[in-house]
Fold each of these.
Amino acid sequence: MSGGEAVVTVAGEQPYDVVIGRHLLGHLPAMLGEGVRRVLVVHPAALATSAETVREDLVAAGYEVYLAQVPDAEEQKTAQVAAFCWGVLGQADFTRTDAVVGLGGGATTDLAGFVAATWLRGVRVVQVPTTVLGMVDAAVGGKTGINTAEGKNLVGAFHPPAGVLCDLAAVESMSPYDFVAGLAEIVKCGFIDDPRILELVEENTALLRDPVAAASSPVLAELVERAVRTKARVVGQDLREAGLREILNYGHTFGHAVEHVERYRWRHGAAVSVGMVFVAELARLAGRLDDDVVARHRSVLTALGLPTGYRGDRWDQLLAAMRRDKKTRGDLLRFVVLDGLARPARLEGPDPTLLAAAYAEIATEPERGTGILL
Ligand SMILES: NC(=O)c1ccc[n+]([C@@H]2O[C@H](COP(=O)([O-])OP(=O)(O)OC[C@H]3O[C@@H](n4cnc5c(N)ncnc54)[C@H](O)[C@@H]3O)[C@@H](O)[C@H]2O)c1
């Protein structure tokens, strides 16, 4: 991308645009579409000022606007918070032609999308993700949901948005930890689909460790655009996870197990980072991936401050967690592996000694904090 804005269209029954750039609120009315009168903006307290700006813009454009301030991060992905939003919609007489805007990180876009999917069996949602993870992953693709006491994302719906606005100016205020964790999903897209991403990261590692500098850089704009293109290509062909979409889970089987064993104190991206190195080692030991691609996993991720190893005394818990993961079919563990750069494939039911050997390759001493090493 050469400055300005980029637009990626996600194919499907109702195609929609993802716009990537800076200061994009002017696009919101067009994305909301014809016939919308009332808009509910769902946002956490951290984005109250931005929500007020959105409200003022939409009121000036003639909409009736309601703000729903919700708890932070995972605290908002509950049935109680969804019910609070339904209450606001009901009291304001929202009809089927009104709309919801999700303004925040992936937790907020998941919640706002779920509220929109369920109100009157589905009203429009425009997603305005404000974190890197939200932009390249959560807000694109139409998966929405909330958590229950039994686990994450157990209740939800496929509900593609009417549009997505990725305003890169928003990431300036992100914590460096959340920012770098989000980059792990971009690196994932580099390995499974678009190796130019890896070169861009390798050429710009210092810039990419600083959200303030990165926010106004064309490098971040290009990385977000490329990662969104990868996700759009995959979900455009497979909204409901019939097959291809599985490749987006590269590094996630082991990553989810790390998150579980760490009781969700690790950031998702940090866990996925370790998961990618694990599965790269697994593919190498299975004779499918060359040493240099495995080494590249370690070098790219380390350069960003992301972890590439995990404590070596947790194998039984990790294995149990992987077996419980919803990606397991029957008794067979399934992994997305690489047969080379941008050549994703499946590995089903690997020999337990191979799994243990891959774990041994990433095993470290047990004192690794929260994963990210900035
Ligand atoms: N639907 C999907 O396909 C999908 C895919 C991946 C992840 N997810 C979900 O996304 C969530 C994680 O997303 P996340 O990492 O964005 O987390 P998040 O939404 O919890 O945001 C992380 C933190 O950053 C704050 N924040 C958000 N934007 C900010 C900004 N611009 N400046 C300062 N602070 C800001 C939030 O208030 C929060 O405290 C998880 O719930 C996960 O399940 C969904």
Amino acid sequence: MRTGNISRKTSETSIDVEVNLDGSGVYDVSTGIGFLDHMLEQLSRHSLIDLKVNAVGDLHIDQHHTTEDTGIAIGEAVLQALGDKRGITRYGTAYAPMDETLTRCSLDISGRPYFVWKVSLGMPRLGEWDTELIEHWFHSFATAAGITLHVENLYGSNNHHIVESCYKALARALRQAVEIDSRKADAVPSTKGTL
Ligand SMILES: [Mn+2]
């Protein structure tokens, strides 16, 4: 089992994360931000990565630190679980439709963090969550996990659908990319020999 376990404590947040890349999509998520919990549950369920998140942050200020640090801690846990990345498929691309909405996520577990976000949201809030923080969550996750991550919403109008399709597309792309490639399970998937 490829597992990662991160405890991240600062003056702003206290976060414990456990992941199992070889799981079955079992989750136990609590961040204090309802919509973020809903999204992280989707991430687990559709990536089949088991995910435990317990985040206690300074929500009396705003949701910025809790959102950002949750992305960082999950990214760090995934990176830890990947180990030397031996045998992984490395690339993943997925489209996630949700009613009128379609989003594509394409990623490379490259060790070179890069982030492209082509998603427009028209509402300032989803539930209590400030929508400007959603891009920040994805950026924080990609940077901490060392992933080249491209997310593009191709079309859609309902903000809940757009955001949920971003997380579901990420989940399905991650599921592909972390999967052990049975044709080359003994090697790191790079001509450089390292990722
Ligand atoms: Mn939903």
